[in-house]
Please model this.
Amino acid sequence: MSMFGQVYVKDNKYKLKGEFHHLTPNTPIRDADDNWKLLGVTNPRDMTFIHSYGGEAIFFESLSQGKLMATRCDQDGCDSKGTIYIPFRTHCPDCLGKNSVIDLTDIAKTTAKVHTFMVCERSGAFNVLEKPIKFINIEFDGVATILMSYLSLGEPEFNMEVVPIFKTTGPTFTILDLSWVPKGTSESQLPEGFTF
Amino acid sequence: MIKFSKQQLKIPKLQRPVYLVTAGQSKFDRAFPDKRTEELCIDSFTMAAGLLDISPAELKKYIHTCYYGHFADHFGDQLLGESVIHDRLGLDPLGNVGVKTGGATGGSTMWEGMKAVASGYSDCVLVMGWERMDEVPTDEGNFLISCAADKDWESPLGHIYTGYYAVMAQRYWQIFGKSEDSFRRTLAEIAVKHHGYARFNPFAQAPMKITVDDVLNSPVVAYPLRALDCCLMSVGAACSILCDEDTADQLTKNSKNKPLRIWVSAGSHTLRPADRLDMDIPLLPNETPDQYKDLGERFPGGDRYPGFTGFLAARMAALYGYGMAGITDPTEDLDVVELHDAFTISDVQTYEDIGIRPYGYGREYVESGDCYHTNPNTGEPGKLPSNLSGGLIGCMHSVGATGIMQTYEIATHIWNRWDEIHGDDKLWKQYNREKPSDWTSLQVKDAKRGMAISHAGVGSHVTATILMDPDHLINKDD
Ligand SMILES: [Zn+2]
Model:
């Protein structure tokens, strides 16, 4: 078994290990209704991309440590000074000054509410979430934006109070490390790898 | 709270009038195992030349620059797919550029083409769009479409774009639709209407004679949306030719096509719905500041604008477009529209964004019968028929072509050529589709003005393409 592609950075350069693509042969596409004449060919493709989170890396690192980070414009003179953004915005969309990173965990634990939701029976290829997926969009007191995420327990409804949970064991370092459960859920009910 | 500056709200002004002289399209289908994309593009171009009664080679002589709409390179596994088409159309060495704005790609390509003529850079341009969505299975297709969402914050969540969109539908459904069965049935009526109109359109991929109950019994995709509430995944191409006045006169000399005045406008909004900030509702000419003061009382929870229920990009496209073309009330001033019915519920939301009905009352456009070719309540012509092509639900959503297909359809009504094209027995036969025995003309009688709305995903881009018979302009002099 070959090794999945892995990457680290040294001296500001990407260092690669393992396989970043897999070879699969092309096969012909033929017409069963017309003497199996050639119509085309399959083109297999399986690649691993190397992606930098840049200024948002701290958000994804923090999830694995049980913290929900956001950003805020603190620039004097900006009309949007004090506005809090999650999803992250590294820079203020108004003045384009660099935003401050703030810890939103406590506000999320005490004020998060479902703004809207959708229970989705379908998924695309490469989905790893259990179906149906319960999409929720979450509003927080004092925050200008409405974060999209998913509910791991219970049935979503408008204004439902929810609390964040974090995949602190075996984190994926993606947005999937953040999920939500109804307020009052006990630690023992949480999905594997997740903590409050 | 977001505020817009005077400069940002300027009504666009064209340097000179722009005309649409012809348009064409290919057959639309879920898959074309036996056709390359350029074959479909050439089909559409050949049709456009045919409507002018000239050869494709003759038409090509007039073209000066080319604008190509093709959204998803990764579906076809071909970067610079635009250059492939440009080369196969034999249009070297003309300047060309690719345009991609998600579901609004077709409309945005029209927008670019219009500006090239309006500015004087070109006297005649080709606007062409297509999409190839049959090169991967549906599952992988959903994955590829989800790549249009934010790849760090959204796409990993199920890789299913419908989910990111449907949360907005849910909010509209509960706040403005009040989760009423009657509203759910109104949504289903839209699907019945669009699949039904598709039966009379030989280009259309999903003609169906169905009932409201069929829609309500179709599989749930994302409650309350069901399979028959959703747009199609398609392959196909469409094109149009835009000109200045002199070229338009030359090209239409021997043709039944009358040059039509065209204006295209565009708006945008955040890629992630999450980032939508509160603002005042930008008002259209048929609205007053007072009418929305108590919106939150009439529809509890509906006071946040655009929140997750309005499409600011559509509102802005309408605001700029109506300003350019002199439209003050779309229902009064227009005769026919093609709207971006990605889902039945987004069709309703769009009625409000573009001012066909005020915010909160979109459903009334369907329930009044105004949106039909023939109003089912009165038997009289509908006041503003919409999506007589079948729209994205019944005809196609071959993304880069969609906004151009809509424009083509509107033009055939104003040219009074809808029957000639859609009723053509030869075309039905050529497309290997059976013309229904109850085939009915959907020509809008005396149509002089129309509009097509092209819309991307969760509302990141929207364009408005307005066409008018030059003898029936609203602004006489612009
Ligand atoms: Zn700022």
Remarks:
- The mean pLDDT of chain A is 95.
- Residues A 73, 75, 78, 80-81, 92, 94-95, 97 surround zinc ion (CB under 6 Å).
- Chain A has two domains: 6-41, 54-195.
- The interface with chain B takes residues 29, 31, 39-40, 43, 45, 51, 53, 56, 60, 85-87, 89, 93, 115-127, 129, 133, 135-137, 144-150, 158, 174-176 of chain A (CB under 8 Å).
